[in-house]
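User: I'm putting together notes for a lab meeting next week and I want to include a structural view of one of the chains we've been expressing. I don't have a solved structure, so I'd like a prediction I can at least talk through. The sequence is below, exactly as it appears in our construct file.
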Amino acid sequence: MSDFHSPIARDGVAFEAAAAKHDVQATAQERGQSILFYVPDEANLNRSKYNSIKSRSLTPNLSVYAFPIDFNPSRYLLEKVGFSDDIKIVAFTPLQSWEDLGITIEDIDLIRWRMKIEGREYEISDKKEFDQQGDTFLYIVLGGRAL
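Assistant: Thanks for the context. Below is the predicted structure for the 147-residue chain, given as structure tokens.
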């Protein structure tokens, strides 16, 4: 049996992945920018008399640091992360930050969530997990279009 398949080696890989996730988060908090997210509050819906939704609360209620953030990304970067050509911003957010908030990639709603960076608002048009350490991803990369 090779060392790679031993329980000790697997624990070492898991430890390295956990350390890498924390390092990515620390770097984003130290060097990155805060992104404000508008996550609709289902309790504060404004409904019509026919019970359809007319409007939702639009106050920023979630913040995550991102590093790097690329405005007007190159075609190369878009291809590297798997996004389409109409993306105007690519933000690398640490997976650990989302996990600390109890949010998974599936929870990030492309239809209703918005993000605000440097005073500009963007709709989230794509999301991907990115950069693996073993079986663990280190980032959730968000692509956005200007509103």
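A couple of points you could mention at the meeting. The first strand starts at residue 33 and ends at 38. Strands lie at 33-38, 46-47, 53-55, 62-66, 69-71, 89-94, 114-117, 120-133, 136-146.

User: Perfect, that's what I needed.
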